Amino acid sequence: MSKLNTTFLLLAITLTANAQPHKQWSDYGGGPDSSHYVALDQITKSNVNQLQIAWNYPTVDGHAYLFNPIIVDNVMFVLAKNSSLVALDAATGKEIWIHENLPGLTTRGIAYWESKNRKDRRLIFAINDYLEEIDARTGKSILTFGKRGLVDLRQGLGRDPKSINRIQTDTPGRVFEDLILMGSTPGEAYLSPPGDIRAYNIVTGKLAWTFHTIPRPGEFGYDTWPKDAWKYIGGTNTWGEITVDTKRGIAYFPTGSPTYDYYGADRIGTNLFGNCLIALDARTGKRLWHFQMVHHDLWDYDATAAPQLLTVMHDGKPVDVVAESSKQGFLYVFDRVTGKPLWPIEERPVPKSLMPGEQAWPTQPFPTAPPPFARQKMSADDVNPYLLTPEERAAWKQRIDKMRNEGLYTPPSTSETISLPGARGGSNWGSGAVNPSKGLLYLNTQDWPTIYQLSLEDPLGKRTTGTGAKAVYASRCQVCHGVNGLRTGSGPPPLAGIGNKVPLNGFLRTVRSGRGEMPAFADIDDTAAKQLYDYLNAQKPAEPAVAKTESPRGPVVANGGAPGGLIARPGNAAGQYTPLGGPPYPEGSQTPKVRYYTNWGLYPDQPYIIGPPWSSVVAYDLNTGTIKWKVPLGQDAEAEAEGARDTGAFMAEHHGMIVTSTGLIFIAASDGKLRALDEDSGKVLWTATLPAGSEGIPAMYEVNGRQYLVIQASSNITTGKGHPSAVARPNLPKGYIAFALPAK
Q: Which DSSP string do the residues of 145-213 spell out, in sequence order?
């Protein structure tokens, strides 16, 4: 046997041994490595077409859940029923206990920890800017944690806690030993809070360490900002996913843009640690290495996807690597320990900014390998040949021809510029997975152009031109939540029938204090907010109703979380500042006199201005640094009716996947279908029609010798340009659906 073949055999043996822990789904994304990889062998390429529904659990309230279930000791924990944490029998879907009324809880998942003797088992989550814990066995709040069960996440950020509208991220923290590692979502306004990375003791709630993502005097990176920028710049936060190499004790944090995202005259410099992959000692928070993927970000190119850990063959020997995918369509691959790029990354000149006071950084890093996974430029020739009228198509061609359009990293200005992939393109949270035994990495990606135009008007701060709740929605909400069932920003589709999804007090809290990427609208008083709630509640749902049944109810063991955890705050100083505007700069700071804004470059029908494919699954072989295959994800029915093929389904940015040791990839799309792909070719081997759309990450596990795949199906389904699906759906309620092979 040759030396090279011997090396491959040893690598395969090592990786197979390392893969054994991937047999249960007891943590968000499957485990601390965020791999979405499962080493279970019951479901294979030859029998996957025999999968059938084993059980389903209705979420009941009509809310679109993105929650990733976790499974411990044959118990599954899910979010459902008006934001309640529910423990289910993982083999039957029957309720074990319910902890009701937890509005504001992290929407994408929770973390799990247990003591070495397993006598102490905890569910850990953020809710309304507090950190809380629940006993995983009883479902009751743990009041010995923090102060009467609460840790206030607004404390310790170098800002007045009363001025912080919200700080928690909807992505759960990551457990390492007795610590919970936390990112944040401080918002996207001027003078938003900083995105410090923090770790808390899981038993006591005591802060263990902090890493300042906006360096303070004397800290590394301070000279990449104006003097004292840490006092007024915000963002540079990990609102996406955290990955931990538990063997080495290294935690990897992807960070987002500094705020304000699109105009940086108050933050001249490269702006460390914005848009970085940061490797920290998980026990101490000490920086081990970092790489900045965007200097002085002006495009909202946050790094959000989970850093992926795998071992590859490189220059004839195995190398442990960490790979980070990006919104701009690049995949960056580094030695996991040293941070050295596996392939050269070149600094190349990029276009200059034309904005007053702005200084776009003159170069940006471009990986020489692997190749980009998304389209990175759009011209008038790329305008969609489908779904647009001839008049619309001609108007878009003419409009794009007039834009400043110099490719990737063209800075925004007061005239229109186009960006592809835009702030909603490329890969996002939940979108990656790996097969560590083969050195293969898989991504879900979408091409979505965005159009920027800066002005002095805050797009979310403009007052209504009409009267009533409809005018409030059009002026304040529509830019993100869209119309006709198609969302255009970070928010969910129009919340028709909201009374069945969110209680009034939860709605008022969100409007007043903001949530996730949504800013606070403190100038909308309770009367106007109640009118908006009633207006949305009266609207008809954007898709046909599905069955709404409920299994026998389990015991309600608690209501409302730890005492005081549902406190609503007044928002930004009684609404004296616009949602993106923020307060004045600190006295004496060298900052611009004016502030520029843009509306994230999103318009109701804009996603479809580019031709298909709109979404894809991409397979990388990181042993060679090449794309192994790329296939469209799903099919747009309206475009198909016009003759389009292999379009990919739109709104596919938050559809996670699972990779199995038997060579299967499971992933859903916004066309309401769940698919199993052959990992060797991307060929579809099996398809299931869901009762509703699915977003977020599925889970896979084994109970009593039977392998299950569980997926949440509670979102809207669209067939093209936001129209509701007319495809016949299974007679099942929206909720969690578990698939398995026929019982023997």
A: STBTTBEETTTTSSS-GGG-S----SS--EEETTEEEE-----SSTTPPB--EEEEETTT--EEEEE-S
